[in-house]
């Protein structure tokens, strides 16, 4: 065996990295779903008092337009495992958390959405720390 072949590095993802990739793709599906729901709100497909763009108050118009664009964008980034995907998701999650936890008198209370965003963020941090620790051990 030559010296070159013995120093060859095999680049294969660890089990944690594979699970993390599928976690990001699952969150991508939820982001796409949320994006579609915001688009349904904007085009007025769903019957309801504030479910049409022209009938929404201004604060809802701004939030719905921003989230209708950002959630599908986050879904694409998360699905492709791009570094900007979690960043865009964080912007969407922070926006919805501020909407529902910070201004419940304007947007209503949605504790389940706030809790789900917090759980996803916590899982993301756990995965990143686990991957970092694995890489640190292998060095």
Keywords:
DUF6163, Permeases of the major facilitator superfamily, mainly alpha, membrane, single chain, 139 residues, transmembrane, 6 helices
Brief rundown of the structure:
With 139 residues, the chain is mostly helical. 76% of the residues lie in helices and 0% in strands. It has one domain (16-138).
Give the SSE map.
Elements: H1 3-6, H2 15-43, H3 58-79, H4 84-102, H5 104-107, H6 111-138
Protein name: Permeases of the major facilitator superfamily
Organism: Mesorhizobium tianshanense
Keywords: Membrane, Transmembrane, Transmembrane helix
Question: What does the model show?
Answer:
The structure is a single chain. It is built from 6 helices and no strands. 76% of the residues lie in helices and 0% in strands. It has one domain. With 139 residues, the chain is mainly alpha-helical. The chain is elongated. It has helices at residues 3-6, 15-43, 58-79, 84-102, 104-107, 111-138.
């Amino acid at each position: 065996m030559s010296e070159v072949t013995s120093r060859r590095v095999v680049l294969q993802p660890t089990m944690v990295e594979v699970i993390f990739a599928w976690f990001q793709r699952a969150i991508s599906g939820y982001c796409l779903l949320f994006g579609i729901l915001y688009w349904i709100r904007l085009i007025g497909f769903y019957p309801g008092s504030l479910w049409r763009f022209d009938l929404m108050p201004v604060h809802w118009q701004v939030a719905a337009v921003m989230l209708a664009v950002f959630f599908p964008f986050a879904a694409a980034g998360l699905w492709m495992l791009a570094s900007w995907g979690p960043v865009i998701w964080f912007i969407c999650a922070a926006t919805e958390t501020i909407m529902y936890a910070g201004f419940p008198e304007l947007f209503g209370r949605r504790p389940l959405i706030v809790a789900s965003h917090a759980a996803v963020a916590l899982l993301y941090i756990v995965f990143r720390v686990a991957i970092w620790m694995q890489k640190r051990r292998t060095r």
